[in-house]
Design a protein that fits this description.
Elements (H helix, E strand, L loop, with lengths): L8 E5 L4 E6 L2 H14 L5 E3 L5 H17 L5 E3 L14 H11 L5 E2 L3 H8 L6 H8 L6 E3 L8 E7 L5 E7 L8 H14 L4 H7 L1
Parallel strand pairs: 3-4, 4-5
Antiparallel strand pairs: 1-2, 6-7, 7-8
Helix pairs in contact: 1-2, 2-3, 4-5, 6-7
Amino acid sequence: CHAAPTVTALTVQDTCNVSAFRVLDRDWVLAQAHAVIADLPIAAIKLGMLGSIEMVDTAREIIQQLRAQQPDLPVVCDPVLRAGGGGTLGGDAVALAMRERLLPLATIATPNLPEARILANLPEASADQCAAVLREFCQHVLITGGHGDEHAIHNRLYGPDASQHDFTCVRLPGSYHGSGCTLASALAGRLAHGEGLVSAVGTA
């Protein structure tokens, strides 16, 4: 796939954490998105860090514009609310706006467990408990692992009618952030190629 980004925020970060961010002006973001949409065929959308309620609404507007022409366009919503090092990338109000305004438009949401807890407003909940809440807003929820001390990464895909698929992979050496963003991008790419959702999650 060819990635055609629209930048929503600028960050101050290193390999361990994000220490500061600035959300871009709405008109600037819309101008970027419209330039890309006019230039290239869009086969999937992947959302990342938005950082403000205004940017949540901006992303919603762009999705609705594209869906008016392509009703089945896949949308992967990666609700980036916490950096890998633990720093906040949007407050509770942003999380609530994402849950209420973007998850219903998404084909799949891909929060990690800390983000799923914020979105579900269940600070100590398990992945299963968070998914039970979030599937009321988005039919497919992939809660990603890797934030604890587990030796293998355990990702859990929750679908309609309480279906669940578990995926595990070996934890790579070292400590990094950005793995969830990479996974969501790979997933969007597989969906863009027409791969079925469960298979695309496994491939990603």
